[in-house]
Amino acid sequence: MDRQQILTTNEGNIAEFRASGGRLAAFGDQPVLLLTTTGAKSGERRTSPMMYLPDAEDSNIVYVFASFAGADINPAWFHNVVAHPTELAVEIGNESLTASATILPEQRRAEVYAEQAGRHESFAQYQTKTSRAIPVVALTLCRGQRSHPVGR
């Protein structure tokens, strides 16, 4: 899929997510969120739908995975998070929140990724397609602080 096809697919997924209160038919019952970042180069706000894994102990932490379906490069949203880790908006269900990001160090990354891969076979397959260690990002949700992502 080229960049324009990805953007068009994402736009449809974002509209469906917002219209359905946080569900995407293509993902079934899997947990999905919208992550809005500030472009590392452009400074423009960009929204990406993605699966997430809630932290087992802290309801204000969720993990997202820079898998890019097993490509040998990180997705653009990951570069944006690295450049602007505190300028994030997250939509889960009908909630719109601000968030900050932390890239997990290797040992914790491996543990969280293994848990996700155990729950969702596609993530295990993504890792086999690439030699890079797929980054895992912890998003710390700031409940009580509403954000207003682009298009909302």
Care to give the gist of this entry?
The protein is of the alpha+beta class. It has helices spanning 3-19, 76-83, 106-119, 121-129, and strands at residues 32-38, 45-51, 53-54, 61-65, 88-92, 95-103, 136-142. It has one domain (3-19, 31-142): Pnp Oxidase, Chain A, CATH 2.30.110.10.
Poorly predicted tracts of residues: 145-152
Q: How are helices and strands ordered from N to C? A: HEEEEHEEHHE
Mean pLDDT: 90
Binned strand content: 25-35%
The CATH architecture assignment turns out to be: Roll
The secondary structure category is: alpha+beta
The counted number of beta strands is: 7
Q: Give the spatial strand order of the biggest sheet.
A: 2-1-5-6-7-4-3
Give me the CATH fold name: Pnp Oxidase, Chain A
Question: How many structurally independent domains?
Answer: 1
> Roughly how much helix do the residues carry, as a percent range?
25-40%
Map the helices and strands.
Blueprint: H1 3-19, E1 32-38, E2 45-51, E3 53-54, E4 61-65, H2 76-83, E5 88-92, E6 95-103, H3 106-119, H4 121-129, E7 136-142
Antiparallel strand pairs: 1-2, 1-5, 3-4, 4-7, 5-6, 6-7
Helix pairs in contact: 3-4
